[in-house]
Write a structure and sequence with these properties.
4-stranded antiparallel β-sheet; 38% strand; 2 helices; Ig-like domain-containing protein; 5-stranded antiparallel β-sheet; single chain; alpha+beta; Immunoglobulin-like; 24% helix; 3 domains
Length: 193
């Protein structure tokens, strides 16, 4: 957010000085103590002109992992580590497979500026998942006390089919529950007539 500040010198109360003389440095210290802003100021014809860019000192990144397509084990795939909404732009994103750093098949976009002064980056890893593999996207950023790690585990075909069966059974159960409630509601209406 950009903020222009124009202040008449004779309208400003003195800060830290008994003197009635205008001291722009004292005022600038006073103003910066009260605003979370970074900017440039200049005095021109007894008017302090300031252009401040109000930005937070740092914003923690949001980290997510997703495969480019849902493939079974032993099939070539691409894992995408999406790191979004962070500030400042300095960031380090690394991939690990079973706690071993992967560097050979890693591709990254440049850091992209968002419209709200935050940034984002995508870091992709080409991989062929094996049973039991754990892939980790680790992010280091000045806003974080310690690195953030997000894991992705490869699923076997049987685990995927069990999960799909469970979801299908749940949906089917909801359909039968809904039909049962409709039939019950209609039968109660018929008894009331």
């Amino acid at each position: 957010k950009l903020t222009n500040v124009f202040i008449q010198v004779n309208e400003v109360a003195q800060h830290g000085s008994e003197s009635k003389a205008w001291n722009p440095r004292i005022f600038l210290l006073w103003y910066q103590e009260r605003t979370p802003a970074h900017g440039r100021c200049a005095v021109w014809s007894h008017v302090l002109l300031c252009l401040f860019l109000s930005v937070p000192p740092s914003v923690e990144p949001i980290v997510t992992i997703s495969p480019s397509r849902t493939e079974a084990l032993n099939h070539h795939n691409l894992l995408v580590c999406s790191v979004t909404d962070f500030y400042p732009s300095k960031i380090k994103v690394r991939w690990f497979r079973n706690d071993q750093e992967e560097t050979a098949r890693v591709v990254a976009t440049p850091v992209i500026r968002n419209g709200d002064w935050t940034f984002q980056i995508l870091v992709m890893l080409e991989m062929t998942p094996q049973r039991g593999d754990v892939y980790t996207c680790r992010v280091e950023h000045p806003s974080l006390q310690s690195p953030v790690s997000v894991d992705w585990r490869s699923q076997s075909e049987s685990a995927q089919s069990k999960m799909l069966s469970g979801v299908g059974g749940f949906v089917l159960g909801l359909i039968f529950l809904g039909l049962g409630l409709i039939v019950r509601h209609r039968s109660q209406k018929g008894l009331m007539r």
